[in-house]
Specification:
Chain lengths: 568, 186
């Protein structure tokens, strides 16, 4: 069931209890976790933090902890599947689920006792009405009547039987119709997968209601929202309206603290609204590198072609920026150039067809040196979360490191994250360039398909879901810009990359078509399931996003064929 | 004595806070505290104030001497005089550090206060060093320094005592008949 009053029905309930926090491995979940941890620290609530990367992890974690804990808080996992059936908990375990995955499973919505959903109901949920899906079983009543009627004397029985048989046939027909309608409703409801309001924002609102919200928590909520935008999980409209909500909070905090005479210490955190450039990490890199490696500019200029490179040089010349300045670290650029940079770039980029080079976002500023944009933090934390630097993939270590990088006092962690993010972006750009130049993207009819061979440089980076999704998004955009075929521009993309060489599996990701007004609804989840069933391929639907699966390399071709037949 | 021990003693000083919760009077071994009512100022020791601030249950009000003009006056006075002037508080250095690290958003002009307190500290320590230097050089028997705080005494304590011990050993070795080329060992 949905919880409307977060404070009364969630926070006060767990106030004196021990809680198990099961957190999924994405940045929004990390931010939500940080906010919740800060609240728990204030009120000295004991908790255990368990990072989970997939359904199997979730089940194992639950089994380990079900003896000791009664209350489980699940962040960004668990809403889109029938949780009670999967975990088989005892009757007194209570689950608080704060998840952005939609659609929410109907059993989770209509269960009144054990599952509490911390989800805002004004999100366009579209949950089917209770009576359309559930109804009391009347079969027992029918068979009981039949056996009673059997003992009647024969004359009366015959007349009675006719009426009874007709009624029975009527009931069965109505039941069949109802079941057909139910299947249809459920199919429509569960066909597309999409995302709702950020979990970090929901916990920030809880903190606000408790008047325990600090600037740190506000910053984490902003990072959670920006993560949804960077990884393309929400529509642009939703992003803009959520930014407006956050802007209200930011002005409230700034207004409370700033005063002409009593100005704040330089070490205090200042969050400001920025209408900044869409160049990833440009404050921590050189402007030139940032333009080459941000997908927006790289795709608009088509930087994998010679013509594109020339266009970039023209662009820089048009703005009057000398190459030497532009290739330097951003902080060491001439101050005269930096002052009007944003306006100058916006003007020039309009001429080159890039209309939205600027995006609304927030930046934070503390100490004398430290200035970060929300998207910088998202990229840094994502790089740390999925870092493949160490040979043994210790997910818990990476999770803790990524979690630490979000705090203000772990700046070296954050700097390490930014370096990893730079490497990741360069790798993505190079892979995109090579895929487009060697025409690795094939049109399979209803979708585009690309397979990364094992020998591709940096392919290990792309065995992780977040990195592969980012690569997918950039590749699709690049393809749309480089192809002449009008029909291909509207197709979705499926990408496969080797995941585990010893076990011989590949990770497969599907993303919806790239368009300005897309509603980011992804139908590949159900499509993958059906295709796997029909060809009995060995697949593992372990990830919380149903559009990301693991597949045995040998079954790849028959799986694809099944998908093509399914979707055409 | 360890500087952290001095800081521990400094945390017993009282500071005014404005809590946002309510609690009846609490009876501790060191004294009674409270009662706490939201929005009404109450005096509590610094250790409790910092704990409540970190749990976001109160707002700390700046101490009366933590004011830019007052500290500027004290700094000027300190620079003029040769002897030590009375310090703003017997634990001024520790309190500044604690309060400005944890509650700088409640204290106006925190950066300037930090700079001023550091200036005062530097001046006083320079005077202390000068006086210790002249004490040892002129081999005085006793000295009197007023208005020193525990933290300042603590910085010079070990060095001064050690050097006086050395001097004593050197002096006693010069007495005839005590040694024949034997050096005191330490």
């Amino acid at each position: 069931m949905f919880i409307t009053d977060l404070r009364k029905n969630f926070y006060d309930v767990v106030a004196n209890q021990r809680v198990a926090l099961l957190v999924a491995a994405d940045i929004d979940a990390l931010c939500a976790c940080k906010i919740l941890q800060a609240l728990f620290h204030c009120d000295q609530i004991q908790y255990t933090l368990v990072p989970v990367t997939g359904w199997q992890d979730l089940s194992t974690a639950f089994l380990e902890h079900k003896e000791q804990f009664r209350y489980f808080v699940l962040i960004n996992c668990g809403a889109n599947v029938d949780l009670l059936e999967m975990l088989q908990p005892d009757d007194d375990s209570i689950f608080f689920i704060c998840d952005t995955h939609r659609p929410v499973d109907v059993v989770n919505v209509y269960n009144d006792t054990q599952i509490k959903l911390l989800i805002k109901q004004d999100d366009d949920l579209g949950v089917p009405a209770y009576d359309d899906i559930f109804r009391d079983d009347e079969d027992g009543g029918d068979s009981g009547n039949e056996s009673d009627e059997g003992s009647e004397p024969s004359g009366k029985r015959r007349r009675f039987d006719e009426g009874a048989i007709e009624r029975r046939i009527e009931r069965q027909r109505a039941k069949r119709e109802w079941e057909a309608r139910r299947r249809e409703i459920l199919f429509d409801y569960e066909q597309y997968e999409y995302h709702g309001t950020s979990a970090a924002m929901i916990f920030f609102e809880l903190a606000w209601v408790l008047t325990k919200d600090t600037k740190d928590m506000l910053w984490w909520a902003i990072i959670g929202l920006t993560d949804q935008w960077v990884h393309d999980k929400i529509t642009h409209m939703k992003y803009v309206s959520d930014i407006a909500t956050m802007q209200r909070h930011v002005s409230r905090h700034n207004h409370r603290n700033e005063d002409e005479e009593n100005s704040l210490s330089i070490d205090c955190m200042r969050i400001s609204f920025e209408y900044d450039l869409r160049l990833t990490l440009y404050h921590h890199w050189s402007l030139y590198e940032s333009i080459c490696n941000s997908y927006y500019t790289a795709c608009s200029f088509k930087l994998w072609t010679l013509k594109g490179q020339k266009k970039l040089q023209e662009f820089l010349a048009d703005m009057g920026l000398p190459l030497r300045q532009v290739k330097q670290k951003f902080n060491s650029m001439d101050i005269t150039i930096k002052e009007n940079l944003r306006d100058v770039i916006e003007e020039s980029s309009n001429k080159y067809g890039m209309k939205d080079i600027r995006i609304q976002t927030f930046g934070v500023h503390f100490g004398f040196k430290n200035r970060f944009l929300a998207s910088d933090m998202v990229h840094a934390a994502a790089a740390l979360l999925e870092s493949t630097e160490k040979e043994q993939n210790d997910t818990t270590d990476n999770f803790i490191k990524a979690l630490d990088s979000l705090s203000r006092n772990n700046l070296d962690c954050l700097k390490a994250g930014i370096d990893l993010a730079k490497k990741k972006l360069i790798a993505i750009q190079q892979t995109v360039a090579s895929c487009i130049c060697t025409n690795l993207i094939l049109s399979q009819g209803p979708f585009l398909y690309c397979y990364l061979m094992e020998g591709t440089p940096d392919v290990k980076l792309f065995s992780k879901p977040l990195a592969l999704t980012l690569l997918c998004k950039y590749l699709l955009k690049a393809f749309v810009h480089s192809t002449r075929n009008k029909r291909c521009k509207l197709l979705p993309l499926i990408m496969a990359a080797p995941k585990d060489v010893e076990k011989g599996t590949v990770i497969v990701v599907g993303i919806p078509p790239d368009s300005e007004t897309s509603d980011k609804k992804n139908f590949f989840g159900r499509a993958f399931e059906k295709a796997a069933e029909s060809t009995s391929s060995r697949t593992l639907h372990d990830h919380f996003d149903t559009s990301i699966i693991e597949l045995k390399t040998e079954d790849r071709s028959k799986f694809l064929d099944a998908l093509i037949t399914l979707l055409s | 004595m360890d500087p952290s021990e001095v800081e521990f003693l400094a945390e017993k000083e009282f500071v005014k806070i404005i809590p946002n919760f309510s609690l009846d009077k609490i009876y501790l071994i060191g004294g009674d505290l409270g009662p706490f009512n939201p929005g009404l100022p109450v005096d509590v020791p610094v250790w409790l104030a910092l704990n409540l601030k970190q749990r976001q249950k109160c707002r700390i009000l700046p101490l009366e001497w933590m004011d830019v003009e007052k500290l500027e006056e004290i700094r000027e006075l300190e620079r003029k005089e040769d002897a030590f002037t009375p310090a703003p508080s017997p634990y001024y250095m520790e309190l500044t550090k604690l309060l400005l690290n944890h509650a700088s958003d409640n204290i106006p002009k925190a950066d300037e206060i930090r700079t001023l307190v550091k200036d005062i500290w530097d001046t006083r320590i320079a005077k202390l060093r000068l006086s210790a230097d002249s004490f040892i050089r002129q081999q005085e028997a006793h000295a009197q320094l007023d208005n020193l705080t525990l933290m300042e005494i603590n910085t010079i304590r070990e060095f001064l005592l050690d050097s006086l011990n050395c001097m004593y050993k050197l002096r006693s070795n010069l007495q005839p008949g005590s040694t024949k080329g034997q050096f005191a060992d330490y």
